[in-house]
């Protein structure tokens, strides 16, 4: 039974990227903010995360570096972040016009060539970012061991990048797991389930005191199939996978189309 499970599901760590807008907040009386994110050279940033401060409501920039986000009221503060750049707080007072956010590249100090970047990323700026108890590799192993490619989604060819955000409280508990990007089916709930049940963390610190902090983690579900429709879906998803960083990858193996 265990060997069959290993044959059906493969959990891999790879470097993959993605960028696709997926607003998760909307209501009839909301106000829509339109904006774009660029770097210091005015080059577009695809896949930057935009969150309403002190919430997990947000979106990501599309292939053109643009975003739209429905907010409950104005003024409001947005947190804009991207791997390798300093997180920026942007206060939006009115919805007229386009909000242009320019991110500054993070200054690297004492880089470690032997230790890869963690797959999770801190969104909030703090003196010390949260760390999983037992270290990043133990948390990576926890995800790899526990996440499963839902059979119904695998058979239906549902695949793509799920981007989850969650809070690490000042007590180190994982709470408020939500999605900035989902792919539908049962994969979305699988990501929420596994992250919600994950072990405690060492909380972030600000001025020497533990504080709550937001994190994000991208997980890609991929169907390894010889069916042309599954291949086409994967190619389309990969086309928007060129901007993020290190991801978890969950591979579901389907039966060859030629089998009876």
Automatic annotation (TrEMBL):
A Gene Ontology term for the protein's cellular component: plasma membrane protein complex
NCBIfam families in the cross-refs: tonB_Cterm
Main location as per UniProt: membrane
Domain of life: Bacteria
Membrane topology: Single-pass membrane protein
Protein name stated in the entry: TonB family protein
Key word Cell inner membrane present: yes
Record key words, sorted: Cell inner membrane, Cell membrane, Membrane, Protein transport, Transmembrane, Transmembrane helix, Transport
Annotated ranges, domain TonB C-terminal: 134-230
């Amino acid at each position: 039974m265990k060997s069959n499970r290993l044959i059906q599901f493969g959990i891999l760590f790879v470097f993959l990227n993605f960028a696709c807008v997926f607003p998760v907040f909307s209501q009839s009386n909301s106000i829509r903010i339109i904006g774009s994110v660029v770097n210091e050279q005015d080059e577009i940033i695809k896949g930057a995360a935009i969150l309403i401060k002190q919430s997990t409501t947000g979106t990501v920039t599309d292939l053109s570096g643009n975003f739209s986000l429905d907010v409950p009221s104005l003024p409001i503060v947005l947190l804009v972040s991207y791997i390798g750049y300093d997180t920026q707080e942007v206060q939006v007072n009115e919805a007229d016009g386009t909000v242009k956010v320019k991110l500054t590249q993070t200054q690297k100090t004492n880089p470690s060539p032997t230790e890869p970047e963690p797959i999770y990323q801190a969104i909030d700026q703090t003196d010390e970012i949260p760390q999983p108890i037992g270290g990043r590799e133990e948390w990576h192993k926890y995800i790899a061991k526990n996440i499963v490619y839902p059979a119904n989604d695998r058979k239906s060819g549902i695949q793509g990048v799920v981007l989850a955000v969650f809070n690490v409280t000042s007590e180190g508990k994982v709470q408020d797991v939500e999605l900035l990007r989902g792919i539908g089916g049962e994969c979305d709930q699988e990501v929420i389930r596994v992250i919600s049940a994950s072990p405690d963390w060492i909380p972030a610190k600000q001025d020497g005191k533990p504080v709550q902090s937001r994190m994000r983690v991208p997980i890609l579900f991929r169907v390894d199939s010889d069916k042309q429709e599954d291949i086409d879906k994967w190619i389309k998803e990969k086309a928007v996978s060129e901007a993020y960083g290190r991801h978890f990858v969950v591979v579901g193996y389907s039966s060859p189309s030629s089998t009876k």
